């Protein structure tokens, strides 16, 4: 039944796509093998730092059940995307401006998103979602683990970044996640969080890469996109409901985020003008339908 529904939605998405030219949004999914490794902290600080560079950024909270981006940004969320799809709110109602260039989009899990039945409401949603077509980048903060609805977002993204810490259990979970992602795509990036140094980050990454090459194969392009040093300032900022990049801009973790953002910005520069069905929130939904 949901398969038939998805087919109808695909046609609807295609029909509602405008032929105007628009900036292509780069979709970056940030995930982890287990909770508690700093995934949402990194997602929120990356989104803020990207927006500080003048880019239009959306951050989509898809970590359902443990959604905490409202805590990171110190805002209150009353309704999310499911309320829009049920006709209980408009897209504009749920969007939360964080800064001039940064918008928080309270999300829902992929399987919930596809369980609505009203085609007229969905069509209205696709029209309303065009207010986000100007986004340069959308960070998708997924749940931990590798459930089916998380795989939908990982499949739809341009880039997938796995966050882990140098803890044996976390490393094992991160590898298991990478192994599953490798069945969906052949490129995965990693961020090593809470490390003592660049040397430690590289050491842990090389071990993961060695095991991946031996068991998954060399066709997997596994890259270390950056590291974040362990620092009490990070946990201190979370307790204060603030971003460490705003409270402690000169700290090493903030410099580490800057270095990761510079790598992401280089990829963004290669994006070209495309039709708007590759843009914003409607573009994300188009991709979710394609991979359903």
TrEMBL record:
Keywords: ATP-binding, Nucleotide-binding. This is Cobyrinic acid ac-diamide synthase. PANTHER family: CELLULOSE BIOSYNTHESIS PROTEIN BCSQ-RELATED, SEPTUM SITE-DETERMINING PROTEIN MIND HOMOLOG, CHLOROPLASTIC-RELATED. It comes from Sulfurimonas autotrophica (strain ATCC BAA-671 / DSM 16294 / JCM 11897 / OK10). The lineage of its organism: Bacteria, Pseudomonadati, Campylobacterota, Epsilonproteobacteria, Campylobacterales. GO terms for molecular function: ATP binding; ATP hydrolysis activity. GO terms for biological process: negative regulation of cell division. One of its GO terms (cellular component) is cytoplasmic side of plasma membrane. ATP binds at residues 34-41. Pfam families: ParA. InterPro entries: MinD_FleN, P-loop_NTPase, ParA/MinD_ATPase, YlxH/NBP35.
